[in-house]
Structures are given as C-alpha cells and as structure tokens.
Write a structure and sequence with these properties.
Elements lengths: L13 H8 L13 H21 L14 E5 L7 H6 L3 E6 L2 H13 L5 E4 L10 E7 L8 H10 L1 E12 L3 H12 L17 H10 L2 E12 L3 E5 L5 E8 L2
Parallel strand pairs: 1-2, 1-4, 2-3, 4-5
Antiparallel strand pairs: 5-8, 6-7, 6-8
Length: 247
C-alpha cells in the first residue's frame, strides 16, 4: 500500500459487512437474495474476458487465458467471480469484509474442486502482495473512504497488471432502478445501497488517476426487459472502469 492509504478512517464499514454477512447463506442461490448478482455475472464475465484478451493479447479462443497469473477479487462475497477466474487458469485470492461470506465461499470452492485463497478482511489483507489481475465488482460504493480503497487496490496491482472495477453510477436512473424499484420490491435486499455514496465515472476515474493508475477503458452495464443485463455505451445505471499502472 502507498502512503496515501495511511488514514484514521477504517477501510471496512462494520454495518456494511454485517449487512452482507447476513446474506451469506443465500449467496449461491440464483433465486435467493443474491439473484441480481447471478444475473449480472454473465455480462460481467464477458467484459472481463474481453479486457483480459485485449491486455495480454490473447486470441479469445483458449479456456485458460489467466494461466500462470495471480488474480485478486476484493469484496468477493461468497466467490461468484473468484470461481470463474480460477477456471480461467488464475491462482485466485478472494477477500471479503464479512467472515460469513468467506466461510460460504470456502465450502463452495471445496465442493467445486477449486483451490482458492479466501481471506476475511479488507485491502490490508493483501498488504505487500501484488497480483496480475485485480477486480472489485460493486464494492467501492460500500466503503467509508473510496480514495483509500482505490489506493490499496493500486498498491496490489503488479507491473503490467490489469484492474477492473464496476459500480453503480449516481444518476436518477440508478436511484429509481436499484433503490425505489429494486429494494422497494425486494428484488435487492433492503438497505443494500446508499445512493449518495455512488460514484460517477468521472469521479471514479479521477480517484484511479490520483492513485497512480491510467484508465484504458470504460463501459456501461445496462438493463432492458428484452436483453437483461448487457455491456454497452449507456453508463447511467452501472459501469466498468479498466485501468493499468501509469507510467
């Protein structure tokens, strides 16, 4: 971690950790409280694979483009992204603030025949380590200090590595879709989001640049009744930011 991360503000919000810890037992149920994450995963994985292939000049054909590489998923929940990254060939470390999630993640990985290094904690759990791929999906909007969080992720990114983030945009559409409709109807567990903590793409890109990163791609994660979730130009609901170390 860089000196920019030294602050008295904790890197974990205990209320957020407790909220997601309560959802741990249903995390792998595609019809349970994490159903929305299961719907997000296919387009999310498609985008990640495209960025991996572009960054490491893969042809998009092989099954294990991350063979020989270390991957970190920060805020991994119960492992919905860690397991696919492992199957893509990476040596995966997953970190989550809720110990309950880590317990579920370990058990599911074992049943799936996968070896994944799961750790309970925050960015401090990987201090002094570096990874070729760093991902953090729908996490930064839940941390107390986004600048510190990004600085910690940047410190974990190896030379020549790739970082991919996703987060909701702070727009009227995201408030309507995620909070008024999503949480109001129970499709998303009530209390999951605080709209005021959402970051715009410009804000997140600025935080990345201040942390010594260079943004190389952004894309929207949209939703339609006909297509479900999809990757495109529309960033009003949710979006991706892909970055590398600057310089």
């Amino acid at each position: 971690m860089t000196d920019a991360t030294v602050t008295s503000v904790p890197s974990i919000d205990p209320d957020e950790a407790a909220h997601f810890g309560k959802l741990a037992k249903d995390w792998w149920d595609p019809k349970g409280s994490s159903a929305m994450l299961h719907r997000l995963n296919p387009p999310r994985l498609k985008y990640i694979r495209e960025q991996i292939d572009h960054h490491w000049r893969r042809n998009g054909v092989g099954f294990t483009p991350l063979a020989g590489k270390r991957a970190l998923d920060m805020g991994c929940g119960a492992g919905l992204l860690c397991e696919p990254l492992s199957r893509l060939g990476a040596s995966v470390t997953g970190v989550d603030a809720a110990a309950e999630n880590i317990g579920v993640a370990r058990a599911h990985a074992e049943r799936s025949g996968l070896t994944i290094d799961y750790r309970a904690g925050a960015v401090e759990a990987v201090a002094g380590e570096t990874f070729d791929l760093v991902t953090s999906m729908e996490v930064i909007e839940h941390v107390p200090d986004p600048a510190r969080f990004i600085a910690g992720l940047a410190g974990a990114l190896a030379e020549g590595g790739l970082m991919i983030l996703s987060t909701p945009n702070r727009t009227p559409l995201s408030r309507l879709a995620m909070i008024t409709v999503g949480e109001g109807t129970g499709m998303i567990p009530r209390g999951t989001h605080d709209w005021d903590k959402f970051l715009t793409p410009d804000e997140l890109c600025t935080l990345a640049e201040v942390a010594g990163l260079k943004v190389v791609d952004t894309a929207g994660l949209g939703f339609s009744l006909g297509r479900g979730f999809y990757v495109g130009e529309d960033k009003r609901l949710d979006y991706f930011v892909t970055a590398v170390r600057a310089g």
